[in-house]
Design a protein that fits this description.
about 160 residues, mainly alpha, Cytochrome Bc1 Complex, Chain D, domain 2, 2 domains, about 45% helix
Length: about 160
C-alpha cells in the first residue's frame, strides 16, 4: 500500500510539473534552462529536480523567476518593505496553490479545511519546514522570516475572504 501511494504521489508530481510546464505557470523554469543550455544541476543538488534540493541558484530563481547573470550576487530577498504578502504569494505560492488559493493538481486549496492546520502558527511552520512526502517545499532560507509572516497573513486573508481573486 505504501509503495502504491509513493508511486501515485510521484506520478501526480510529474504530471503536475508537466501541467505547469505546458501552462507556463512554472515561470518558464525548465524552458529557460533548456533555452540557455542549463541542466537540472544548475538549480538542484541532485539530478532529480525537487523543491527540497534547490541549491543557491535554484533558490534565487524561485524568488526572482530568472537565473542570475554571471557575477550577480545571489541575494534572494528584495529590499525590506518593497513587497506585500500578496506579491510574495503570487511569486512563490500561486503556481501550486492557484492565484486565489483554490488549489491546482500540484497542491490543495488553501480555503476550506486544511490537513496540516489553519492557525497562523501552524501555517508558518508549514511554510518554513514544508511537508515531507508532498510537493510543499520548505521556504526557510528562501524567504525571510518577515516574508513568511507576510505570506501567512495573506493566506489567512484568503481564508477569510475566499471569493476575492
Amino acid at each position: 500500500m505504501t509503495r502504491r501511494r509513493t508511486i501515485a504521489a510521484l506520478a501526480g508530481f510529474v504530471a503536475g510539473l508537466m501541467l505547469l510546464s505546458l501552462t507556463g505557470l512554472a515561470g518558464g523554469t525548465y524552458e529557460h534552462a533548456r533555452a540557455t543550455g542549463k541542466r537540472c544541476a544548475t538549480c538542484h543538488t541532485s539530478v532529480r529536480p525537487d523543491a527540497g534540493n534547490l541549491n543557491e541558484t535554484g533558490r534565487f530563481f524561485l524568488v526572482n523567476r530568472r537565473l542570475p547573470p554571471a557575477g550577480e550576487a545571489m541575494n534572494t530577498a528584495p529590499p525590506p518593505g518593497q513587497e506585500d504578502g500578496a506579491a510574495i504569494y503570487r511569486r512563490t505560492c500561486s503556481a501550486c496553490h492557484g492565484p486565489g488559493g483554490k488549489g491546482t493538481p500540484l497542491a490543495p486549496a488553501l480555503v476550506g479545511e486544511l490537513v496540516h492546520g489553519d492557525s497562523a502558527g501552524r501555517l508558518r511552520d508549514v511554510v518554513r519546514k514544508g511537508v515531507p512526502g508532498t510537493t510543499m517545499a520548505a521556504f526557510e532560507g528562501i524567504l525571510s522570516g518577515d516574508q513568511i509572516d507576510l505570506v501567512v497573513d495573506h493566506v489567512l486573508d484568503i481564508r477569510k475572504h475566499p471569493s476575492r481573486p
